[in-house]
Amino acid sequence: MWWKLLLAGLSGTVVGGCLVFYVFYLTHDASRDIRLVHFAKEWSSAGREWKPFAEWLRHGGRKFKYDIAVHSAKSGMTEDEIRAVFGPPDLVIGVDRLSSEFSAIYMRGLGATSAYLYKLGGFAFYDPGKTASQDLAINHEAFAVLFNSSGKVVYRTAVSLRPDDELAALDADTRSDDRVTK
Length: 182
What we know:
Blueprint: H1 2-43, H2 50-58, H3 61-64, H4 66-72, H5 79-86, E1 91-94, H6 95-101, H7 103-106, E2 114-126, E3 136-147, E4 153-161
């Protein structure tokens, strides 16, 4: 008799746990979709004046939204879907520049032939190679969405920029209407 009570309690625990997990899964997706709506409005530079947007970038704007960006750009999305979520890219690069300047991500064998780059801005970090009065340096990054030859997303990541790179200059409006597919 006691084994029936034990079995009923164990079954109830399993069913209850599955129910809690299922409810969490549904609400988590819903909250992610809500965040995505607000994310797209803040992230995109479409229809905005560049100078105030650049100031927002300078103060960490997109950098604080990077984790949402990585989860929003899903593999297999089309170029139009990326533009709908992220707005116009700050730079569109082809396979030549991708393989030479961003070889670390190009060499992963993902079949990437082009990329959209979005300015993330700069952040300060400690550089022990500098003199004591200049031991902080600024590192600039961009969010890269890589596309294959058919215009589908194959990868997304942050990339470091050289200080002389055009994307490192936050005040320069580099938004592009170029496309990876014709």
